[in-house]
Structure to design on (365 residues):
């Protein structure tokens, strides 16, 4: 077992630690010290539970513990699943001092967090993320929610966890495509605020793909440090700082929706979206062609797609991008790059230039 690294998300009375280390999921004391009541409910899914539930339960070794196992998949991040969770919590007579434990990727984390935000007007919850994406992004910061047939993540709440326990050992069973999807979000942190981290990633990507323990722990730690700082500065996404975490996401969401959910993983779409954001920034004269090349090369080295899918026209892109949550007063807002390590949010978007940029990129082989 490696040493446990601890970071803090500073949010006053709602501050909480992020623990990072190999094998820490079975350290029951971490869960016990962040669960004020005696009732615990672990929520997981049919893929993750057979792999990790037993170790987690063994560590806690407590009588009053229930488990809820959900089907696997984004399609189950729904109001219907939420109802199923509430039925089970009520049937088990869970009171307001229950602590919900999310054991899984971002889907389980988001739905468990939202269940915790709503159940009896709010109960405690702990994140035990088991995908790289969840360890570096979704488990930190308190965004919780479910999808609606008319839009992804459209029903939700801000509800911070009591702690995050990121066991790097769980990444060994993650499918390679899911690992790469998580690496897209890791690269994002280098791009938005941390140029030295970007340079470190350029040198260390092969080690990360091999899950070399010190490198993967460092990458998760740096990513969480960046996310924690942004969340502490703008918890409820009001000042524009938290929106920087959406670099590449407006383009990426258009790809996900345009191609049909599930064709590209979220991280894959975000990777291509970050290249598009970099290209558009270059066309505005904010960064140079060499920097765009570096962004594209690093993402490609993480085995991520960097070419714009030809199936989507520029018109369709703009139509889909207009549905983004960052649109304000009908105006498209984009996160773009002033440099590697310096992202900004702008609503001054030249739509004609954006259209021609997308058209050109979709024609490039
Ligand atoms: P996911 O939760 O669907 O997990 C991906 C797949 O990997 C699933 O099949 C899952 O069962 C499986 N899996 C999980 N851990 C595993 C392990 N250790 N070994 C083997 N298989 C494992 O997807 P994700 O990428 O973790 O999360 C995506 C979700 O996160 C989306 O719903 C997205 O909206 C949400 N998200 C939320 C935030 C936020 O701030 N709350 C941020 C980013 C993404
Ligand atoms: N994943 C974006 C955010 O947490 O704000």
């Amino acid at each position: 077992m490696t040493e446990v690294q601890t970071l803090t998300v500073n949010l006053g009375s709602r501050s909480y630690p992020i623990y990072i280390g190999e094998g820490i999921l079975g350290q029951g004391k971490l869960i016990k010290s962040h669960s004020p009541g005696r009732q615990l409910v672990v929520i997981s899914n049919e893929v993750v539970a057979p792999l990790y539930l037993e170790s987690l339960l063994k560590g806690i070794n407590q009588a009053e513990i229930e488990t809820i196992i959900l089907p696997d998949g984004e399609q189950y991040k729904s109001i219907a699943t939420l109802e199923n969770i509430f039925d089970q919590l009520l049937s088990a007579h869970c009171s307001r001092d229950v602590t919900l434990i999310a054991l899984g990727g971002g889907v389980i984390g988001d739905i468990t967090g939202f269940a915790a935000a709503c159940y009896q007007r709010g109960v405690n919850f702990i994140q035990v993320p088991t995908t790289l994406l969840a360890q570096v992004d979704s488990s930190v910061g308190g965004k919780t929610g479910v999808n609606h047939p008319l839009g992804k993540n459209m029903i939700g709440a801000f509800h911070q966890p009591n702690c995050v326990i990121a066991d790097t050992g769980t990444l060994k069973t993650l499918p390679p495509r899911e690992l790469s999807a998580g690496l897209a979000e890791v690269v994002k942190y280098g791009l938005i605020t941390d140029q030295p981290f970007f340079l470190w990633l350029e040198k260390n990507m092969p080690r990360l793909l091999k899950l070399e323990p010190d490198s993967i722990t460092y990458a998760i730690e740096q990513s969480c440090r960046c996310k924690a700082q942004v969340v502490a500065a703008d918890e409820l996404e009001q000042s524009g700082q938290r929106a920087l975490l959406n670099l590449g996401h407006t383009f990426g969401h258009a790809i996900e929706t345009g191609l049909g959910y599930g064709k590209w993983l979220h991280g894959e779409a975000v990777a291509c979206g970050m290249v598009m954001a970099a290209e558009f920034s270059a066309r505005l004269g904010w960064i140079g062609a060499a920097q765009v090349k570096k962004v594209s090369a690093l993402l490609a080295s993480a085995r991520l797609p960097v070419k714009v899918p030809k199936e989507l026209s520029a018109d369709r892109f703009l139509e889909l991008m207009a549905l983004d949550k960052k649109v304000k007063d009908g105006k498209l807002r984009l996160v773009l790059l002033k440099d590697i390590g310096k992202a900004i949010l702008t609503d001054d978007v030249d739509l004609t230039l954006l259209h021609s940029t997308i058209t050109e990129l979709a024609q490039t082989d």
Remarks:
- The chain has a mean pLDDT of 95.
